[in-house]
Amino acid sequence: MPRVKIKGENPMIKKRISVSQKRQITIPIEFYNSLGIDKEVECYVQNNAIVIRPVRESSGEFDEQILADLIAQGLSGQELLDKFKETRRQIRPAVERLLDEARLAAQGQASSKTYEDVFGPKAD
């Protein structure tokens, strides 16, 4: 497998792979193993290239806030655990919806809010 050296970066591994008639590809085992791909990858287009990368589950950025809110609601024990898991599963889809809305607004395809709409007039 050829390695391409880009100035100031780690060597990039490059491999040519075929696309099936059903538009499917097989990820080379070296790529699969080195990236630690599990059950899912995410795919997007950036700078005229398809980027495929492993899906990483939430690393707990909002865990403390979720728990504090649920405890403030009076939850505890198994009920707290169940509600925590349910709430945590909702974070990724919510963030993805926000990003989609932001992309549409940036492209002028959806309404957007100004700073003043969200926070009120700026204080001098």
Entry keywords:
alpha+beta; 4 helices; 124 residues; two-stranded antiparallel ribbon; single chain
Brief account:
This protein folds into 2 domains: 16-56, no CATH class; 57-109.
Q: What is the overall number of helices?
A: 4
What order do the strands of the largest sheet run in, or round the barrel if closed? Answer: 1-2
Helix % is: 40-55%
Query: Span between N and C termini?
Result: 60 Å
Mean pLDDT: 84
Order of helices and strands: EEHEEHHH
* Count of structural domains: 2
Structure commentary:
The chain has 124 residues and is an alpha+beta fold. It folds into two domains: 16-56, no CATH class; 57-109. The chain is 42% helix and 13% strand. The chain has helices at residues 29-35, 63-72, 77-106, 115-119, and strands at 3-4, 12-13, 41-46, 49-54. Strands 1-2 form a two-stranded antiparallel sheet. α2 crosses α3. The longest helix has 30 residues, at 77-106. The model has no long low-confidence stretch (mean pLDDT 84).
